[in-house]
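Teaching assistant here, posting this on the class forum so everyone can see the example we discussed in section. The complex has two components, and the goal was to see what a joint structure prediction looks like when all of them are supplied at once.
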Amino acid sequence: MSTKHIYQNPITSAHLWHVIDATNHHVGSLATKIAGLLRGKHKPIYDRSSPLECGDYVVVLNSRNIQLTGKKWDQKLYRRHTGYPGGLRETPASQMLEKDPNHILRHAVLGMLPKNDSKYYLEQRLKIYENEKNPHIGQISKTPQSSLALNLGPYEAPTINPTNEQVDNYFAGYILKMDDNVEQFSMVESKVRDHKDNLKRQRRVLRKKRANELKPINIEEDN
Amino acid sequence: MNIDKIFKLAKGYFGRSKNCKSLARERVEKGLEYNYVSRRLKKRDFRAQWIQRINAGTRQHGLNYSDFMRGLISSDCQINRKILSELAVTEPFSFKALTVQAKDQLSKLHFKTYIPKEDIINPTPQVKAGIETPTLKQK
């Protein structure tokens, strides 16, 4: 079935509207979802050559409550150049949140779209708002409803309930002697993780040595 | 190549390359090279598109593309990717039946292999392919 036949039918090729609440979502993981929705990669009628026909509209609310992990609020810089010599302007992410919170998410999404002329048109379909108010409700109610339409709420941390087998696999080769406290558990876990990282580092050094990338030096064991 | 044939192929080209003899010859030779390449690229591009469509179809039912294909291949389902992508677009219910089949098969398989769980727990003894050396009859 050729793509022409699909796009002639307005039921299959109607543009959907996705509404996302961005509170407590991480920027990068949310941006990957949005970039896929804008291009229409979640639809079985996806065609690389016509992203404008199978792509969708995305509305993002509460962009002020978005989150970055680690020290990125202080260390991440948004750069631009005025064109004059010495005209490099840098704003850290914490200042950008006060100045223009929409720019943080928009900048992340645009970096994930394909670098060609379709980027300009796909950008226009991304609507980001600081607050909870959604001005597109009238348009959304007119479009046909679909199970593919994604309506994400605020972020919920995933709950992990490992089975006994998975716990045994993780602590393989270690004797566990601890109480059922959170502190005790975290101490043992961090000790295991450090040991595994150490082993990984040693293996990496050995691999490089085997490939003659390193000069012959005496490898000191960190113990 | 005959110049009449070249002008026939150079119809609709940009600028003087449809009228001038020397320019048309250059453009037509280059165009035929592109033809040769794109005849090969067409097969790869279509396969990539089928895979993208199957992936979008399987993700609606909570499955990965690679897991889906692993389940189908190990259950000896011989539908190729072109037909699977057409099923994903036009017949979503019959495509759903395939995902159910793949999920059933995946539950029987060992982690990240095509080998069933039972064979790993109770492995069958491997028999070496015995090649009988031909005995020469000496006179």
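For the discussion questions: The first strand of chain A starts at residue 17 and ends at 21. The longest helix of chain A spans residues 182-210. Think about how each of these relates to the inputs above.
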